[in-house]
Amino acid sequence: MEKAQAKLELQPEGEQDPEAEAAARALLTDLYQFTMAVAYWRAGRAREPAEFELFFRRCPFGSSFALAAGLRDCMRFLRTFRLRPADIKYLASVLPPDTDPEFFEYLQGLDCSGVTIRAQPEGSLAFAHVPLLCVSGPLLLVQILETPLLCLINYARWGLRRRTRASLRAGGPGESGRHAAHSRFLASSSLVATNAARLRLIAGPEKRLLEMGLRRAQGPDGGLTASTYSYLGGFDSSSNVLAGQLRGVPVAGTLAHSFVTSFSGSEQPHAPMLAPASGQGLPRDLSTLAKSWLGKVCECLGLRAEETHPGERAAFVAYALAFPKAFQGLLDSYSVMRSGLPNFLAVALALAELGYRAVGVRLDSGDLLQQAWEIRSIFRKCASRFQVPWLEAVSIAVSNNIDEKVLTRLARKDSEVNLIGIGTSVVTCPLQPSLGCVYKLVSVRGQPCRKLTEDSEKQTLPGTKAAFRLYDPEGAPILDLLQLEEEPAPRAGQELRVWPLDVSGGDCRSLTLTPASLEPLLRVYFHLGQVCEPIPSLAESRTLAQKSLGCLSPSHKRLEHPEPYQVALSEKLHALLKGLVQSNQEGP
Amino acid sequence: MEKAQAKLELQPEGEQDPEAEAAARALLTDLYQFTMAVAYWRAGRAREPAEFELFFRRCPFGSSFALAAGLRDCMRFLRTFRLRPADIKYLASVLPPDTDPEFFEYLQGLDCSGVTIRAQPEGSLAFAHVPLLCVSGPLLLVQILETPLLCLINYARWGLRRRTRASLRAGGPGESGRHAAHSRFLASSSLVATNAARLRLIAGPEKRLLEMGLRRAQGPDGGLTASTYSYLGGFDSSSNVLAGQLRGVPVAGTLAHSFVTSFSGSEQPHAPMLAPASGQGLPRDLSTLAKSWLGKVCECLGLRAEETHPGERAAFVAYALAFPKAFQGLLDSYSVMRSGLPNFLAVALALAELGYRAVGVRLDSGDLLQQAWEIRSIFRKCASRFQVPWLEAVSIAVSNNIDEKVLTRLARKDSEVNLIGIGTSVVTCPLQPSLGCVYKLVSVRGQPCRKLTEDSEKQTLPGTKAAFRLYDPEGAPILDLLQLEEEPAPRAGQELRVWPLDVSGGDCRSLTLTPASLEPLLRVYFHLGQVCEPIPSLAESRTLAQKSLGCLSPSHKRLEHPEPYQVALSEKLHALLKGLVQSNQEGP
């Protein structure tokens, strides 16, 4: 797994990268990026140095945090960005017919060799308004990159639901701050990794979480992205084989109802002989053996063997013959208690007689918690009755539209569920299915830029910035600080005056604090067209995510009504912002 | 546009298809498909003839209809399906170590040459439980195809929100029927095309609808799918250039705030000379000309020219110089009424003086309907004052989180909005973001199969089927009929006894009706590995969708609480279903 990741990092050109070709689609962008490109070019501004910031305005799902993820996809795109002759020809066919032909010649040479990217590390905690990516380079090019970068980042990332102020506070960390009303009508953006992290927080560290949402994903790479980033956010594995092959996500799987129902039981069992696990002794007919065990199981449980479905048992036998060391049963194709469970036990005990251990059962309907209790109790009964101690601990997996609420119940302390398969609600982020990252111009030719729209929600923070995370003496993050890049970095142990962020430009009180330690948040990953710092492997990023979440105070980590995490501006940045707001109010 | 589509159809091998490589990812599937494959193969059943049906159980968004879409993606996948040596090697590394090595040899020869697909035509109306795809072929293979087909279809398609009965009725079309409670907790699946069709129904036929959600889509092909199928569902165009290049969707675009804010106004205007449209007369300095027009505009509107932003005007001039015949202004980077609008008018009137016509303005914040009224009134005032009649009719485009509710307001009869850009709410289907198609085994070796779980919601209809749509004398569809494939087709003008569908197997009354006309719903598009009927172009499917929707009765088309559309079973299929339910209740 780690090897596959490492290999990607060593391919600066991306030719061997199986995903590079798809990633390299330079026309994956909005047409207006190219109409603007014509206009920048016509105005002689194509190569002016500019910087855009990619950030989100509100954490998703009402959480106070998000996880940074998706950097690798961005690097892959940038490394291979080029307009092929066919792309340019197509553009010429859709741009206005009087577009200067020289513009299309200019496009031929366009690549990312002038682009530099600073970013927050993959898997780290991220908060509203702190840039995830700072993209600097020639104005025309970094403008064109807007849509593909948002498209790549947004799905792997964040959104908005609460109004901005809910994620900001006027006071220090100890004060209660002001909360704003939810803005429910903005059913909007989301992050698979953050979503997965929430589900992991609910499930606790013990339950195994399997992502199985490929069939519910938004197309093939929606599925790939979902599988990759749910793993980063804290899932244990995915059913998506392609995510395993391309991204190194551990894969897992069992069997489906169609397999079970495809057996009627009237089939002649095919090659039913199975040799004992030890290799010693004669092979036995597993089908016959299971049938004889069925009688004993039904007797023990007070069931009628005639009520069990023979096709289901034939399916279990077929599966056990294929995987005698990894037998699993799907119990609810017919009746769980009257058919699925006794059939599973019959096959599991037949295998046991040959020295094999069954590994698990899965339930896909009904009251999952209740059934898991009943099944565990029957496992215990049979383990004791038939002296097969391991049977007691056979893994119980459940699935079927599991969302945060259902998961909360399944994760109860006394739950007997071991593995939880989640599809739809992890890959589609139903709590907040749409996506809210934005990409805003912050400087041109070194001069800070700012959109000063009448809609204060949509205003932006001007200038090229640095960002720092400030920690308390226990190592918990207390605040993210944004400042202008040219300012000296704050120092640990030194008192600092900062301005809690209020994008509306309204009045707010400053506060002073002394960080016990701090770290810069933005690292240069891509410098003038070259990847200059390796992106950690997916598994490393997953570890970082869990570690960062572990340090975050429980009050911020709470899933319902968390205390908002504070983002603040340096004095200088605050002054710049105030100055621009004022000059706009007075007119230019 | 049509050419691009036609080309795809002529490439049976897909080698030249720019999307084929990505589509051909045979490992885009759940691992359990391969564990089951091992077990089918081990049981000697790999090549048994089998049929799966792909269908949805409830129409999305509380609608009574959905649109069939996504067939082309499925054909592309099937045509190119093959496991490469690297895929097989990867599978061997993740399947249990004792998997029989011969299985992997078997996989090497696997392709879709034994697969046949019947499907509803692309763009036609589709209803719950009527198969969208019937996939027949060797059991092992058609099982493996489950996940990729669902992944490809689901995003392009449907979902569930209401409980099944809400979409079924016991009585005939004239009766009121029974409605069940909504099942809100099942926040689930959706269809971009259906979503787009709903938005088109709200907008009415006149307003132009632009899909601009690429940056909010679930990754690159989520974006491509969204752009393609929102066009099919009734949008006019997309901002997504790749969807234009690969799928022939008409593309459109304007300019963004970053373009406007990148100009400070202090720049030296670059090559500001513009020749008159007629080609006769001397070039004029557009920047100077616009400045002089600004004075007149402000005087006419009672505004102060000093309040307008010079950077915004410089941006408009730059855009107009690049596209003198297609000038558009984005009005809300600063103040719409005090800066954006007078700057736009200044540049538009300067262009007018040179014989050019501006084409539009865009608003991206604030009260869009109200502003459009004000802007139109100012356009009229200036058109009359400066004797530029076309100015009155300049297109007003709006965007900014437009959902069904906002659209309803913007589509009012007296609205002055001409073009509506919709992003998030068309591509992410927030009303129902997750997806609900299922893929169920209906026959093996010619024998009907059925999952008879205790969860009646999850039960399936057995047997290989035919499906017909029955029409009333006015050509409105009244009912979809499912029957066994071997039954004779129903005939127009002949009385028919049918059983309204009740998947729970409960009692329901039959009804008799006499269709004025009917049409078979399932066509063979792919026969034994070959595309055997060309899939209509995207534009043709779009036309079919609008035509089919046009025939549907308004009571079914209503977006809130529509009358459910009826699906019914033939006597024979009903009897088979009853028999299987009964035999299961009595035990096998």
Automatic annotation (TrEMBL), chains A, B:
Modifications made to the protein after synthesis: Transiently phosphorylated on a His residue during the reaction cycle. Phosphorylation strongly increases the affinity for substrates and increases the rate of nicotinate D-ribonucleotide production. Dephosphorylation regenerates the low-affinity form of the enzyme, leading to product release.
Nicotinate phosphoribosyltransferase C-terminal domain: residues covered: 465-576
Pathway: Cofactor biosynthesis; NAD(+) biosynthesis; nicotinate D-ribonucleotide from nicotinate: step 1/1
Ligase found in the keyword field: yes
Names of the cofactor(s): Mn(2+); Mg(2+)
Keywords, comma-separated and alphabetical: Ligase, Magnesium, Manganese, Metal-binding, Phosphoprotein, Pyridine nucleotide biosynthesis, Transferase
The EC number(s) this enzyme carries: 6.3.4.21
A GO cellular-component term linked to this record: cytosol
One Gene Ontology molecular-function label: metal ion binding
Residues of the Nicotinate phosphoribosyltransferase N-terminal domain: 27-154
Reaction equations catalysed: 5-phospho-alpha-D-ribose 1-diphosphate + nicotinate + ATP + H2O = nicotinate beta-D-ribonucleotide + ADP + phosphate + diphosphate
SUPFAM superfamilies the UniProt entry points to: Nicotinate/Quinolinate PRTase C-terminal domain-like (SSF51690), Nicotinate/Quinolinate PRTase N-terminal domain-like (SSF54675)
GO biological process annotation, one example: response to oxidative stress
Entry's family note: Belongs to the NAPRTase family.
Purpose: Catalyzes the first step in the biosynthesis of NAD from nicotinic acid, the ATP-dependent synthesis of beta-nicotinate D-ribonucleotide from nicotinate and 5-phospho-D-ribose 1-phosphate. Helps prevent cellular oxidative stress via its role in NAD biosynthesis.
NCBIfam families: NAPRTase_put
Protein name in the entry: Nicotinate phosphoribosyltransferase
Gene name of the record: NAPRT
